[in-house]
Write a structure and sequence with these properties.
4 domains; Rossmann fold; 16 strands; alpha/beta
Length: 402
């Protein structure tokens, strides 16, 4: 696309040509021809440099293999220009615009300008920048926008370099020093004739997401032509169920990442990490309409993967999930939004099981506002249900409130 400089140059060449016609001075014709000839020369010299440009992007997290909210990540860009010989035009005066979805909305990396003086044919340029990961989730980088006005600024060429880069960011995890509910171990384990995880094989069943690949029964796979996994007898080992309310409550539009649901996900991850550290089997209970939860005990990576992707988009409240007849020994219920229907069910669960913890987020204390969870916390406390009311803390002290 021609720039304003091209039109100015052509107009100047035309004026010199008119002046040469009036005065019949030869050198004025030469100047007019030179000025007019610069425009097609600029188009010819920069015609292919940007078109041949390729790029690659990598996101690194230092020594750790995983990315968590609050970590510092390093984004590396590699620009390459294939070609060889004097006939291959270079790419010069490149202006890049990198949009990093990992950064906070007000961070410069949301639209980071980068200037590259030039890349010769067959050359490569390495670029890198650091960013503090703002929030969890599956992030997709948009195309890299490239612009060049080389060689004389007479033509503006633009291109969008597609570099499909998807990054899964796990929620922030803070190791808990103690959790009273899990610090009291029940009696030794006994084997039950229910499907679960132990050393006793009951049979085989179809493979489900979250099952260990080591338990695949290859003979059944060859016979049935589908993935089959071993089914074990369940041991009466104390386990923890994380029940997270993912119902689409009328959350107000947030001004930032500090919302009751996001804090609830962090609390679930920290409680799960404590249980994993204490070697308790972990189970998930959440509405499958938002994101199907893995069946049976889940590993720590599977739990993190689920909590990284989950969003408050469910169609069923937590009451339906808590009505399940058989759950592991311990139950941690995380409510980002007050639901009065849960109180009676939790009181009943408290009378039936050894360990129960209700974690209530108080939306009224968050920047976007909402109903107060204090009345529900008082009702649960009066019913004898161990309850933690977590309020918004600008210093981020959500783990200490457990």
């Amino acid at each position: 696309m021609p720039t304003r400089r091209s039109f100015v140059l052509l107009l100047t060449a035309f004026l010199f040509y008119l002046l040469a016609n009036q005065t019949q001075v030869g050198w004025l014709y030469v100047v007019a021809a030179m000025l007019a000839g610069v425009v097609p020369a600029g188009w010819w010299l920069g015609r292919s440099g940007l078109r041949r440009l390729t790029a690659a992007r990598q996101v690194r997290a230092g020594a750790q293999p995983d990315l968590h909210e609050g970590d510092e990540a390093s984004v590396h860009l590699a620009l390459q220009l294939p070609g060889r010989g004097w006939w291959s035009s270079p790419a010069a005066l490149l202006r890049l615009t990198e949009s990093c979805p990992l950064a906070a909305p007000d961070h410069p990396a949301q639209a980071l300008p980068i200037f590259v003086p030039g890349i010769p044919a067959g050359g490569e340029v390495q670029l890198a920048y650091d960013v503090l990961i703002d929030r969890r989730g599956l992030h997709q980088f948009p195309p890299l926008r490239v612009e060049s006005r080389a060689p004389f600024g007479l033509f503006r060429r633009r291109r969008r370099l597609e570099m499909p880069t998807r990054v899964l960011v796990y929620p922030e995890v803070r190791p808990l020093a103690r959790l009273e509910m899990l610090d009291i171990r029940p009696l030794a384990e006994q084997v039950r004739l229910h499907s679960g995880r132990s050393s006793e094989v009951m049979g085989v069943r179809p493979y489900r997401t979250g099952d260990s690949p080591r338990h695949i029964h290859w003979r059944s796979v060859a016979r049935r032509q589908q993935l089959m996994t071993k089914e074990f007898a369940e041991e009466a080992q104390p386990g923890l169920t994380l029940a997270l309310d993912v119902f689409a409550h009328p959350y107000p539009a947030p001004a930032g990442k500090h919302t009751p649901f996001e804090w609830g996900v962090k609390l679930a991850a920290s409680i799960g990490e404590y249980a994993h550290r204490r070697r308790y089997p972990l189970h998930l209970a959440a509405d499958s309409s938002a994101l199907p939860a893995p069946a049976g005990p889940v590993s720590w990576p599977v739990l993190l993967d689920y909590l990284a992707r989950i969003q408050p988009a469910g169609r069923r409240t937590l009451v339906d999930l808590l009505a399940m007849p058989r759950l592991p020994t311990f139950l941690a219920v995380i409510l980002p939004w007050p639901n009065d229907d849960v109180a009676a069910l939790l009181a009943l669960r408290q009378r039936q099981r050894a360990g129960l913890l209700a974690v209530l987020l108080d939306p009224a204390s968050f920047p976007a506002g909402g109903p107060s969870a204090a009345p529900l916390a008082a009702e649960l406390g009066a019913a004898g249900v161990p309850t933690r009311l977590v309020r918004f803390d600008p210093a981020g002290g959500w783990a200490e409130q457990l």
